[in-house]
Design a protein that fits this description.
Elements lengths: L1 E2 L6 E2 L7 H12 L5 H12 L5 H17 L4 H11 L2 H15 L7 H8 L11 H16 L22 H15 L3 H29 L6 E6 L5 H14 L3 E5 L4 E6 L1 H31 L5 H29 L5 H19 L14 H13 L10
Length: about 400
């Protein structure tokens, strides 16, 4: 007990446990210890103090902001949370990402699209202890995220676009129809038309940029490569990237590939890879069903071999289609493309100075390989001759 200076009134110092202290104590107990007992201790502290909820959310938004500084983007964080935890944690981190974004303008069109794709609808209700446990599990993961190579690059191609080109809208519609149809011939024609449009768009953009914006630089994006059979999927993505004058580097532990290239080509890779993967999965399911009717049970090896053959054959066909589009283009295109190839290779070397190649294992099913190659042939993507 003491007295206030200049006053005869007695003064009593009272210790008050603030909500900030509650969060700090919970973090000290749970975030730096991997045991369940530590997690229970931290969750109990948070569950007993409803006044700490706002501070807990604020700290979570700080963890998210720290992830951005370490090179992560919204889709990357959601992907790793889905990979390591479960649906509740995905919704928790989605809410944090939107809260941290506030009313700020997203740094680019991809970032804005990733924000629009977030799912924050919570299934059912949870008691305070269960909710606090999930939050601490999420924060443990966010705290341990490693640094990634930053994707931003100088140049006009990295600047946000005000509106998606009409061509991409048409490509999306064509690929959606190709995925939905049950007729291989129709899917073939739709995919071929989509590839033709993307190749034309890329060539036109390259020529325009060379004439008006010679300072353009390649950018980069991350595309998820999800299990199972992620090695074969990474090979498929690499084939699509190479055909579209991009380079892909697979991060197996993180579940994504980084694709380096100029913006129109990156858009083509994203669209075409997603569509071909959907088509390959559908064709694989049908082929596997037919194999099962014949008494086969080696599902895993069949699927791995199927996807590997599909990726190998699609790569050949895409390269042929790309070369055909270049052959039908203007005479001054070749120097422009060579300059772009050099710029992409240089950007990849700076981002990833040390890379290794990996061998595709588990490809020993002859029937799977034959069926996958046949499916790739049906998913013909060779563009038609360029119209005058």
């Amino acid at each position: 007990m003491g007295r206030a200076a200049g006053s005869g009134a007695p003064r009593v110092t009272i210790e008050r446990v603030s909500t900030t202290t509650t969060v700090d104590r919970a973090f000290r107990a749970a975030l730096y210890d991997d045991t369940d007992a530590a997690l229970d201790t931290g969750a109990s502290l948070l569950a007993a103090d409803p006044g700490a909820d706002a501070e807990l959310v604020r700290r979570g938004e700080q963890f998210v902001a720290a992830a951005w500084r370490r090179g992560w983007q919204p889709a990357d964080v959601v992907r790793i949370v889905r990979r390591e935890l479960d649906a509740l944690h995905v919704r928790l981190v989605s809410a944090l990402i939107l809260g941290e974004a506030g009313g700020r303008t997203p740094p680019g069109p991809r970032w804005a699209a990733q924000l629009r794709d977030l799912d924050v609808e919570f299934p059912g209700t949870f008691d305070r202890f269960s909710h606090a446990t999930a939050v601490l599990e999420l924060y443990r993961l966010l705290l341990r995220l490693p640094a990634l190579e930053p994707l931003e690059a100088p140049g006009r191609d990295a600047a946000p676009r005000q509106q998606e080109p009409r061509m991409l809208t048409r490509v999306r519609a064509l690929l959606a129809k190709a995925e939905a149809t049950g007729y291989p011939e129709e899917a073939e024609a739709l995919s071929a038309k989509a590839q033709e449009l993307m190749a034309r768009h890329s060539i036109d953009e390259a020529l325009l940029a060379a004439r008006t914006h010679p300072e353009n630089a390649p950018g980069a994006c991350r595309i998820g490569v999800e299990p199972p059979y992620e090695t074969a999927k990474a090979v498929l993505l690499d084939a699509v990237a190479t055909a579209n004058r991009c380079r892909a580097v697979w991060h197996e532990a993180m579940g994504f590939s980084t694709v380096i290239g100029f913006e129109p080509d990156l858009e083509a890779v994203e669209l075409l890879y997603t569509s071909l993967l959907v088509q390959a999965t559908g064709a694989m399911t049908k082929a596997e069903a037919a194999q099962r009717k014949g008494g086969r049970k080696r599902t895993k090896t069949f699927r791995q071999s199927f996807l590997a053959a599909y990726a190998h054959r699609i790569g050949d066909r895409l390269r042929t289609a790309a070369e055909g589009q270049v052959a039908h283009s203007e005479g001054d295109l070749l120097p422009v493309l060579v300059a772009r190839d050099v710029a992409v290779a240089d950007r990849m070397e700076r981002m990833f100075p040390e890379t290794v190649t990996t061998r595709l294992r588990g490809v020993g099913d002859a029937a799977g390989w034959e069926q996958g190659a046949a499916a790739a042939d049906r998913a013909q993507v060779a563009g038609r001759p360029r119209l005058p």
